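Limitations
The structure tokens in this dataset are predictions for the assembled complex, not deposited experimental models. Users should treat interface geometry with appropriate caution, especially where small molecules or nucleic acid strands are included. An illustrative entry is reproduced here so readers can see what is and is not provided.
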Amino acid sequence: MIKIWSMKKNEDAAAKKRPKTSAAQIRVQKDLTELDLPSTMKTTFSDPADLLNFSLTISPDEGMYKGGAFVFSFVINNNYPHEPPKVKCMQRIYHPNVDLEGNVCLNILREDWKPVLNLNSVMVGLQYLFLEPNADDPLNKEAAEELRKNRDQFLYNVKASMRGGSIKGVQYDRVSLQ
Amino acid sequence: MLQNESQDIEAATATLQAQPDSKTRRYDRQLRLWAASGQAALEAARILVTSGSATSTSVLKNLVLPGIGHFTILDASTTAPADAGNNFFLNADASIGKPRAAEAVPLLRELNDSVDGVADVRDLAALLDTPEGRQFVAGFSLVIAHNLPKTTVEKLADLLWQDPLYPPLMVVRSAGFLADFYIQFHEHCVIESHSETAPALRLTKPFPALQAWADSTDYDTLDPTEHAHIPFVIILIKEADKWRAEHNGALPKAYAEQKAFKAAVLARQKKLDEENFEEAEAQAVRLWTEKGVPSDVQALLDLPALAPDASPNVAFHALLQTLRAFVSDPAGPGTLPLTATLPDMKTDTESYVRLQWQYKEQARVENVRFKELLRATHPDVSIDDALADAFVKNAHHIKLLRGRPFGAFARDAAALASALDMAPKETLTHLGLNALSAVLERSAEVTPEALTAEIQAAVGAGVVLPEDELENVVEELARAPTADLPNTAAFLGGMLAQEAIKMVTKQYVPVNGYCVVDLIGSTTGVVGAV
Amino acid sequence: MATTTISNGAAIAQDWPGRYYHVDQVLDRPGPRTDESFLAGEGVKDFLRNKCKILVIGAGGLGCEILANLALSGFKDIHVIDMDTIDISNLNRQFLFRPKDVGKPKATVAAAFIMSRVPGVKVTPYYGKIQDKDDDYYLQFNLVICGLDSVEARRWINATLVNLVDPENPESLKPLIDGGTEGFKGQARVILPTISSCYECSLDMLNKPTAFPICTIANTPRLPEHCIEWASVLEWPRVHGDKKLDTDDPEHIGWLYKIASARAQEFKIEGVTWSLTQGVVKNIIPAIASTNAIIAASCCNEAFKIATSSAAYLNNYFMLIGTDGVYSFTFEHEKRADCPVCGGEAVDMTISKELTVDKFIETLIERQDIQIKKPSLSSGSKHIYFQAPQQLEEATRPNLEKTVSELVDDGGEITVTASSLPFSLSLRIHYS
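Predicted assembly:
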């Protein structure tokens, strides 16, 4: 065998054994403990020992969705950050960029994900959807149509849906804090 | 699912394909590279391999697996203990003393039932001395020769160079960690080169329907959603028109102008993050890089034609001449024919499908015009529609390689001098392998000194050779002059098979020149290309 | 999971004279680029043929080739791990398998084939996951060669071998040779864990998997792929609920194909086929025997050179593109200082058994050589103290009062993350 060990002695920086924790685990620890979230966002761990599964509650304090509390599930696998976290909305909500199954249209969750992004970027991106819903590339077409054509009606629908009302035959979950 | 919705699906999908048959499933991973046309070409190929060495059977393994039609191993030798040790396609020590070709063929054939394989125990050198033998060798579609004696390989190469209709010859030589290989062909034409560069979209010379669409698009009358979905193609045509109007008909040239153009595109956005405008900015480079005829295709159009009836590529040359006529046709677009393939872009379904339809329609019109020209200029050449269609579709990426006889490089003092300068290591390895064949041919002892003397004689006494590179080559060759190492054999087996597949399918682009392999440094390099 | 071991202990044949005529030419004498430590002749042959133990991960396209090359090169104690069974689409390149083997475990069939073809070579298969095996298992090998198609498995074995390196034990450093192919392209690399650039260091060189915006799939499909993704990402879960999509089940593919075709027709999109549907949902990468042969040969050649010192080895990355002529590029990929696996610092700390976590953190912050602010600490899967988020801070706060020795064994490791660190810091704790 080649004499690798003799090369090793010259490499002092890397000369120590490392802990048995996966790169994904350490990265999630780093992402979570360095989260810089406004008071409108809060994470909840159903099992604090499990960093890979948790939820995020967004309670916008401005914009059309003010007064609601929106819950998203985060599922992170061991291929993080090569793969993005899987995020779904846990409630049925009336929003142009969230469909009735809870799928969310946010570029950095799919096509624009890259490993230099982190959980903070995803969370900030989600909150932005509630401040500036995007009607141009919708998932809930009817909601988007309403937002484009009749902003007042859209706002009315948002408020009604947040109280658990139904719009065009679809019953939405109550997400109002009041 | 609602009932009427499901009925719609049933009605819409009544003509769907069933799950593919077992042959398609077996070949699925390769059909994604060369499709049914490439597979058919492979299945029609008859390949002659002139020995049953480890390198030879490695090449064959990689050709039998994807399903070539036929192979013959031509090998008069019996299996030596050394063969039984380094060749996976022999029955180990049980094969010792038995004909090597006959031992290898069944073990290769069992890799793929649909491949025909034959062991031929005649002697190649003797065959090359008879007209029947020469005819036999010339009757294959490709010949592959590993570590043949010097005079035999020269005879073989001479024979196969005599007629452009004779098969291409792949010559591979190896010793220990060093090797080279060469494909001898007069000319090799490729329609489907699978180039990864995008075909032109005619943004600087839009066809009428496209221009009309751009002209009729008024940013200000569109609602915000429509505005955010104008295809970048339309945006760029409009912006280019505007720029030309303001710049005496010229497009942006200097870097500063290009920057200004891009800024103008972005300034068209009505709100932040309109992705179609961002895409237009990113694609603006097409306006100053897209040519009506790309320079490498122009070089082919300018090539002097070979004597037409002596070429196996009559059809390709007829198509090439037609392409020349198409480009210079005053009634035509003055460019290569349009390709219907449209890249994906940020727009809505309706606009995209409409745009795609317009490109298809224009491509169809130009394809018809191309075929009219073809029939008018080449009434006697029979070219089926599928071939002409493939040519038109791939006109941006066609390739034509012209080659030289095996060994011509080493006789070309000017080419050698320049190669020694540009790629000393590769050139010396090639010359070293030449020297090794010469020394082995006269049954002399292979020493660094003997090899150095041969190399020096080949380049001329006055040429100063780089000392370190020379020493590395001759000492390494003298260390293992006859070693067909299992890993080197497997490496070359893969390389040669890749090239054989490219030659046979006429897809992708084979190497032109001597590919030199150094498995100590783990490098490859090409020298002696025309 | 069953462990199958085929042993041919009694059957180890005598090497016939001349068996290694070819290989011995490079083992009997050094070349101009051979390291001085090379033990030409019997010494190196004895190590290669009687002592060296090598692990092959993956018995697929690369794995089959790797096993055959190693066996012919003179490696006689080979282990192979693969969790897959043989599929008909493997037969165009995985040359140790025949149609009758479809459905059987790759590792077992490949091992049996090699042993029947190359006498005297022992191949020990394991049909299962690499994650089933512990450090002691990996420690028994001199070298590891990987022919995998999964990023996740590669990251795992890479991190495992880096973590295995023990400063007290030279034998713990296992060279890792990794190969990969796609169509006419491929790469081979040599990783000397903790010494040269590791797999994680180059993670950003990977092509990212194609993903389409979900709103495009839902509302503005343009390509056949968009229709197929609609069927698999949105329609499958909507219609089938929790039933998992099995991309190997032709009925499932058939259903997706039907749904995608109907959608394509509705939007006047052309080009949805069975083959494309399967390609998109399984993320199929084209694969051919010849490219696998090149890359596997390159990997085995490096393994041979490293095991024998008979010639210089690859430093450290070989990339091949065979689509347009033969183009290859050999270069040294640089180690990344902030690599989560092999980068960052490791520091030995000796502390009192009585030191509380709270005081320990203060000590860390005060250390001039580390320069750390607001550190969060864990040890393996145990959270020691997290600065945020609030719930995790509260959950770990009681640990501040505990002594470090209650939470971490002597010689144990603590992983520290902090925004002031490039990635993380590991501390090896000893008690005075």
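Some entries come with short summary sentences. For this one: The CA atoms of residues 69 and 137 of chain A lie 24 Å apart.
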